[in-house]
Amino acid sequence: MDADTFLPALREAFGDRVEAAARSAKRVYVRLDAADLPEVASWLLANLPESRLATSTGIDLRDGVGLFHHFTVNGSPLVVTLKVLLAKPDPRAPSLAALTAAADWIEREIHDLLGVSFDGHPDARRLLKAEAMADVLPLRRDFDPERFEERSGERS
Amino acid sequence: MSDRKVIQIGPFHPLLEEPVGFSLTVEGERVVAIEARMDYIHKGLERLAQERTYDMVPILLERICGICSVTHSVCFCNAVEDLLGVEIPPRAAYIRTILGELERLHSHLLWVGLAGHFIGYNTVFMWAWKYREPVCDAFEMLTGHRQNSALPMVGGVRRDLPEEYFPAVRRMLDELEGQTARLTAAVLDDPVLAARLKGVGVLSPAAALDFGVVGPTARASGLATDVRRDEPYAAYAELDWRVILRPEGDVFAKAVVRLLEIPESIGILRQCLDRMPAGPLNLGTLHVPRGEGIGRYEAPRGEDVHYVRSNGTNMPERLKVRAPSFVNIPSFKASCLGAPMADVMITLAACDPCYSCTERAMTLVDGRGAPIAAAPGLLAASRQRTFALARAFGRAPDLDLALD
Questions:
Q1: CA gyration radius, chain B
Q2: Helix (H, G, I), strand (E, B) or coil at A27
Q3: Domain holding A63: CATH number?
Q4: What is the pLDDT of residues B340-380, one digit of tens each?
Q5: ipTM of the shown complex
């Protein structure tokens, strides 16, 4: 499946709730509300054969924290990115972990590095970030590595 | 249950090349829960990349992993080139393909060796690692370094490959083809290995898709995924090779997929050396405008994904790196549960986990009491199971084949 067949199907299923654009025949970016995320993601996994959550990107933006879920399809060059913007200071998004096991670790990583809370995540413990950094968010723009004092050896 | 125990493996242990902690909860011999702890070597590379220019980032990314140097740097270039919408010159595409396939060859040989080591077949280990060495030598002949070539750059490659070394690389491929064919035949025909590995650590196609596993781990579960075929980058659209698929999903199938991919890689390399086009090496210095791009690359362990976002300056605003092990390692939750302890080590090893990439680590632990067994015990259990099978077959415990 490529962007030309995927986009009309997506628009038909969700109408105004999604703002979808194809950057090329193999890259589709879809803006939507965070609340619609589980529904659109589950539609996508069901309607794109052999699609999977490849990964997700978290990014600290001026207006909030961006959360981009990238879906790839086995046997196809298509990459569909679902983009949501989460309000600071307490960014929250529904978890996709119940839909696909692939969301488990990546949501924990984004929680570690950007402080996004995923509602419904079964196991939201620290995954990658060092213990000594437990109370800082290293990918936030206000994190200053120069002023960070490591508290090594302390348990969190 | 009162007879539950926790076994801790790692994070620092001679058996594990990299720091990772695994906690196994076992009931008698059966594993009922498994957990990984991975926070030992987070290097903050994604943040570091935001403080380097587009020209410097590939050099940084080569240092993500001790194996996949070409993988991450080329994947980043693919992402930026997707943002820019440019095609790289044909000679650069062929050079990237040669580097990528040499990397695949030495990575697969390294895994075959380690897998042999984990189940007590040290002949396989010695063999595979002996054959791997000339591949690294070829990489050094062509680029000046065994691992980090510093060749890939946005819009092409930085330097040319010295064609005077192509005959030596061809000779290496000819020798390697015979050697790996013998190794593959010996491993696939060995009744003890078949009895030891078939049906062990099975990952069903549905679970494979759910966890989103990639590369040989997915192809051994029958999922036809290979970025080289799905979204051809570099020169793959012009080359012929087969995507190796196995339906079984067990450790044996994963070994078969990797072993059979070795001759395919050798074939790709020969085609590249034969058809190497002339022409420019790169597109010069490129201005990266505002925008975003996604790059994909078939690493030896599977699909690598990079997301790049540019704000129009000479440094990326955000780089997201997703190495294949990040999705392959969690699949142990599907493949290890219910398995006997002796099978855990090889099942964990079967996805060719790379902790540097994932985080950037793991251990077997007996649940809530004192550790009942440490990693050496598990390795011994894994080997004893192989030896018992070998005795049942009336065979010497190790492959009785001489090194050539």
A1: 21
A2: strand
A3: 3.30.460.80
A4: 888 887 888 777 776 655 543 232 333 333 334 455 566 67
A5: 0.94
Closest to A77 (Cβ–Cβ): which among B230, B330, B333? B230
Interface of A with B (CB under 8 A): 24, 26-27, 29, 50, 52-55, 57, 59, 68, 70, 72-77, 79, 81, 100-102, 104-106, 126-131, 138-139, 145
Helix/strand/coil for A127: coil
B287 by Cβ neighbours in 10 Å (0-12 / 13-18 / 19+) ranks as exposed
- H/E stretch holding A67 reads strand A64-73
Q: Judge whether A154 lies within some domain.
A: no
HSE-CB for B142 with a 13 A CA cutoff: 30
| CB of B39 closer than 8 Å to CB of A128 | yes
Q: Let me know if B403 is exposed, middle or buried by CB neighbors in 10 A (0-12, 13-18, 19+).
A: exposed
Count chain A–chain B contacts defined by CB atoms under 8 A: 95
Residues of A in contact with B320 (CB under 8 A): 55, 57
The pLDDT score that the predictor gives to residue B105 is 96
The count of structural domains within chain A is 1
Please name the member of A70, A101, A145 whose beta carbon is closest to the beta carbon of B294: A70
Residue A57 has its nearest CB partner, among B39, B320, B359, at B320
Structural domain boundaries, residue A27: 3-141
B218 touches chain A (CB under 8 A): yes
* Whether the predicted pLDDT of A35 surpasses 90: yes
Q: How far apart are CA A6 and CA A9, in angstroms?
A: 5
The verdict on a CB contact (< 8 Å) between B223 and A50 is yes
Interface test with A, best of B84, B221, B318 (most A CBs within 10 A): B318
Which domains does chain B carry? 4-42+336-392 (no CATH), 45-326 (1.10.645.10)
Q: In 3-state terms, what secondary structure has residue B260? A: helix
Beta strands at B156-157 and B291-299: parallel, antiparallel or unpaired: unpaired
Whether residue A147 lies inside any domain: the answer is no
